[in-house]
Recover the amino acids of this structure.
């Protein structure tokens, strides 16, 4: 996996409305012939190519590497929950990939993959774009889309004790979830320190407060301070 | 004391009319080099004029706090210019901005790390009520996790509103009685022991 910085001297074409339209038509023709892409009829701005999940990685790699596309920037990966959407008939989730080229003016293209509620799995593209790592984590956190092959699919925005996926349309609007610990990162941090040769003198987990030590508001008391010193 | 040798000063007005509570008795022998007052008045005066703020700034309200700390609005005039970035050094927690459920235990722990007496300002709509973030992730007011002394309305509040809050807090600090707090603590100790 290599990432080349953009050489501004090699920007091939400046931004123009005509050039962008021409690019969209040309890129979509390639995607349709090679990756079974279809147009999303909902589009009013720009162009969205709907590709099957099995062709997603191929389509993304084509858009990134093909000399006529060179879309080197993954702007965003997110999802849309079409539960209760007027006139929608089909898979519940659409996973959306926004791509942009820094070499060809301001060419942009969207890819969309339909995902069923029962099996919300799409292949991960974290090895094609480094930023996709966190974007996929966020999409999993908020929508529950599983990115197959992602090395570290943890929550990104919501806290560690959160249950459910809050941007799904069937998440209860009034539901609130408390976090009981002030530093859930401390255990991974201790593990990393020990792996680097540090000695953790006082483990937080061993000193975490009991239920009796809850504070005046009835919520669990926060953890105590620990000390880490380098091994001699 | 002892500097005045020419004329005999008037005797201190021990039996004079009742002075206002908390005021320094300036006519009670000031020219002899001493004043009389109450411990409550002195401790409250010292506490209210040496607030050390710790800013828990998470949003635009913290930008307004920067304006307040700058030269134009200048909280140094109220003795509160010494902004600390350790809760262990400070006695005024300024919560300026949106607090999420993910941050709530951190805010709670910072408050617990501050030494008493400590006070809390809840700055702006988000810190006071959650503001318009009525959603899955935002705490509906920091008084869910820590006690608050003064709430400030606004989104964000102007620096004048901050100053008003500091003045109200100073009044509250001055009105508190150090001696009765101390007596209550001793009382609790005796009961426990």
């Amino acid at each position: 996996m290599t990432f080349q910085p953009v050489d501004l001297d090699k920007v091939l074409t400046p931004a123009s409305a005509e050039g962008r339209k021409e690019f969209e038509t040309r890129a979509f023709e390639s995607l349709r012939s090679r990756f079974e892409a279809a147009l999303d009829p909902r589009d009013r701005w720009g162009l969205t190519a709907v590709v099957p999940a099995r062709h997603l990685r191929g389509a993304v790699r084509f858009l990134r590497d093909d000399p006529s596309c060179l879309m080197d920037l993954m702007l965003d990966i997110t999802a849309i929950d079409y539960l209760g959407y007027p006139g929608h008939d089909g898979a519940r989730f659409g996973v959306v990939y926004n791509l942009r080229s820094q070499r060809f003016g301001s060419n942009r293209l969207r890819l969309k993959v339909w995902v069923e509620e029962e099996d919300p799995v799409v292949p991960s593209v974290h090895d094609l774009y480094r930023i996709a790592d966190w974007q996929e984590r966020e999409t999993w956190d908020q929508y529950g889309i599983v990115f197959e092959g992602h090395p570290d699919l943890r929550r990104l925005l919501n806290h560690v004790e959160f249950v459910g996926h809050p941007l799904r349309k069937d998440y209860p609007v009034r539901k609130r979830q408390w976090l009981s610990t002030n530093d859930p990162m401390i255990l991974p941090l201790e593990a990393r320190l020990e792996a680097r040769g540090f000695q953790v003198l006082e483990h937080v987990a061993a000193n975490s407060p009991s239920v009796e030590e809850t504070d005046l508001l009835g919520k669990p008391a926060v953890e105590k301070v620990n000390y880490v010193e380098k091994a001699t | 004391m002892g500097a005045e040798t020419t004329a005999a000063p008037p005797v201190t007005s021990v039996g004079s009319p009742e002075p206002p509570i908390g005021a320094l008795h300036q006519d009670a022998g000031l020219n002899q080099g001493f004043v009389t007052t109450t411990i409550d008045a002195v401790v409250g005066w010292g506490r209210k004029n040496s607030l050390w703020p710790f800013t828990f700034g998470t949003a635009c309200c913290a930008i307004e706090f920067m304006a307040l700390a700058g030269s134009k609005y200048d909280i140094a005039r109220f003795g509160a210019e010494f902004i600390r970035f350790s809760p262990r050094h400070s006695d005024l927690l300024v919560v300026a901005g949106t607090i999420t459920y993910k941050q709530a235990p951190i805010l709670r722990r910072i408050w617990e790390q501050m030494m008493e007496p400590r006070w809390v300002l809840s700055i702006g709509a988000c810190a006071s009520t959650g503001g318009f973030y009525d959603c899955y992730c935002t705490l509906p007011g920091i008084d869910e996790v820590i006690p608050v002394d003064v709430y400030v309305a606004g989104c964000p509040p102007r620096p004048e509103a901050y100053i008003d809050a500091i003045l109200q807090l100073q009044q509250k600090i001055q009105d508190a009685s150090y001696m009765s707090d101390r007596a209550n603590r001793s009382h609790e100790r005796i009961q426990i022991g």
